[in-house]
Amino acid sequence: MNRAPSATAARTPADFKTRVQAVTAVAAQHAASVDSAARFPEEAFAAVKSQRLLGILVPERLGGEGADLAQVADVCYQLAQACASTGMIYAMHQIKTACILRHMRDSQALGRLLRRLCAEQLLLASSTTEGQGGGNVRASEAPVEYRDRRISLERRASVISYGAYADGIVTTARRSSDAAASDQVLVAFLKDDYTLTRLQGWNTLGMRGTCSEGYTLKASGAADQIVPEPYEIIHPQTMVPCAHLLWGSVWAGIAADATARAQGFIRLVVRQSGGQTPPGAPQYTRALASLRTLRGMLASSLRAYQRSMDDPKALASLEFQTMITLTKVEASELAVSIVLSAMRACGLSGYRCDSEFSIERHLRDVLSAPIMINNDRILTNLGSSSLLTPIAASIGD
Ligand SMILES: Cc1cc2nc3c(=O)[nH]c(=O)nc-3n(C[C@H](O)[C@H](O)[C@H](O)COP(=O)(O)OP(=O)(O)OC[C@H]3O[C@@H](n4cnc5c(N)ncnc54)[C@H](O)[C@@H]3O)c2cc1C
């Protein structure tokens, strides 16, 4: 049995692996009921907390473990193989943690928040989608209001995944009532700071366990809960790269489990038919090849980001921004096609909802990928700037 680590025990990559495996066992066991009841994966998150995986990205000086983004991406990949909603919730929490961590400068208040996050294993949710704005993250309606050193915010947050189950919400907002919609800040509120009034439910095709309901978020707090750097900086330097890489890792995890099921199905048929492969077998090989491409692309984009992380000029370059943006589009499309191939490989056994080789939940979950910030919105926005992106001159570029 895996023992839960203490807050102070020394940790190694091998230790991470054991701790994540302890969670995936629980997540896999409950994935079907999380999906069918569209309920928060409470068992998996009790395990995530007991394995102290929520603070791994935070440096040791603030009570965390100083894991790098590639390690976090790997946790997302593994969790999503067991339960896509668990993987996505974990990814969203880490994206918000990274935004605070990388842009808090020397904020004492945010330092305290991160210490509490590690010590108490607080789960952070994300609020960017507002009103009828859809995936236009770079515009906010509701402003931060100021009175003395206190702030307040009331926003119609049309989607907040696991809002009702989180210990805090990190939200975008207009800087002030006289600021433009694109002049945004990021604010961290803990549960005692806000109320949520439900606006709409979450009865969706997939990712049902994320419980991404809509709420009126009414929050108040101290002015130093605002992340000091403007969202205009946070968005390209951290929010977009971390979101695209960690979401991509979740979608890759869904695709990997679907491919593993296809492999299991084909092996069984071969065994039972004296060596005959089923007609869908080439689709399995296709899934395997595309999964390799997807993992390779994510690994290469992760390396590129980690190389430039502390270089604002490199992060702002058209080349980097185009690359990281297209990583999301490509990862989401590839993941869908891998899962579809896996389903075709399994034939009726994959199409069934009640077979051990069912790909049904994977397909429903992965179909959220191209619309989680709509790929067409992204491609349209990228349209003219991509014309200026240099086409690689050599194979190694
Ligand atoms: C699994 C999942 C989890 C998510 N979790 C979060 C989260 O935790 N926090 C968060 O902030 N966001 C979350 N989102 C939302 C996501 O970030 C994007 O905002 C969302 O995918 C955009 O989808 P869309 O199709 O509504 O908008 P878009 O495709 O960007 O645009 C749709 C456009 O249609 C218009 N429109 C839409 N509905 C109507 C309507 N009823 N009447 C009139 N006009 C309308 C809107 O004006 C909008 O501009 C999540 C999405 C998914 C799929």
In short:
This protein is an alpha+beta fold. The chain has helices at residues 13-37, 42-50, 69-82, 84-103, 108-120, 231-272, 281-308, 312-316, 318-346, 348-351, 360-366, 375-386, and strands at residues 124-127, 145-147, 150-160, 168-174, 184-190, 194-200, 213-222. It has three domains: 13-122, Orthogonal Bundle (Butyryl-Coa Dehydrogenase, subunit A, domain 1), CATH 1.10.540.10; 125-225, Butyryl-CoA Dehydrogenase, subunit A, domain 2 (Beta Barrel); 231-386, Up-down Bundle (Butyryl-CoA Dehydrogenase, subunit A, domain 3), CATH 1.20.140.10.
In total, how many beta strands? 7
Instruction: Decide which structural class fits the backbone.
Output: alpha+beta
For this structure, the CATH topology of the largest domain is Butyryl-CoA Dehydrogenase, subunit A, domain 3
Question: Architecture of the largest domain, according to CATH?
Answer: Up-down Bundle
The arrangement of helices and strands along the chain is HHHHHEEEEEEEHHHHHHH
Largest sheet: 4 strands, antiparallel
By CATH reckoning, the class of the largest domain would read Mainly Alpha
